[in-house]
UniProtKB/TrEMBL annotation:
Positions with biased composition (Low complexity): 1-30
Stretches the record annotates as Disordered: 1-51
Protein name according to UniProt: DUF6318 family protein
Lineage: superkingdom: Bacteria
Domain (DUF6318): residue spans on this chain: 26-177
Length: 185
């Protein structure tokens, strides 16, 4: 498996924004003419996602992917996202850097939703308080746009990534993402 820190390609079981948020108008997905508008946020971390259990691992990973999808759809991550990651997570830093660069360029994307399936939680530790959770991830085709361009300035093809893994670290009674690893097809 290659460390996916160089190419952010996040994921989620159709980890779409929750209905609980209250945006200032109807949701509008991104188009070639404008970024997404009024995207509902993913909401708070579910209580079960704090548990040191397989259910806690699954709920945490589901929420983490919702946060990433939200970031790619809106062009910015919520401050909450950093609290979900270990400071040493290269992939997490790459996602933050990618979105900051896109914001500087006044760029946005369409598509690219990350969906996951078959999360395989485990309570078997790699090292003290480190758990490698395997899952399968599909990233939809993503098109990047900039103001003044009617055609995409870049495109990422759809990628199906079976055998992806998320490194979870248990610190101070909470889960943190320590890494995201995907086979490069």
């Amino acid at each position: 498996m290659a460390d996916s820190s160089a190419t952010p390609s996040p994921a989620s079981s159709a980890a779409s924004p929750s209905e609980s948020a209250s945006p200032s108008g109807p949701y509008e997905p991104a188009t070639s003419k404008h970024p997404a508008r009024n995207v509902p946020d993913p909401g708070p971390l579910p209580k079960v996602a704090k548990e040191k259990s397989k259910a806690g691992q699954v709920a945490f990973i589901e929420h983490w992917f919702k946060e990433i999808n939200y970031g790619f759809e809106t062009g910015e991550l919520r401050p909450h996202f950093k609290k979900l990651n270990d400071p040493e997570c290269n992939f997490c830093k790459a996602v933050e850097d990618h979105l900051a660069s896109a914001a500087e360029d006044k760029a946005w994307s369409t598509g690219g939703k990350l969906t996951f399936r078959n999360i395989r939680p485990t309570l078997k530790q790699l090292e003290t308080d480190q758990y490698l959770i395997e899952l399968d991830v599909l990233e939809e085709e993503r098109h990047y746009y900039k103001n003044g361009h009617s055609e995409p300035v870049a495109t990422n093809q759809e990628v199906d990534q079976p055998d992806t893994a998320v490194l979870l670290i248990r610190k101070n009674g909470h889960w943190l993402v320590g890494g995201y690893y995907a086979d490069k097809n």
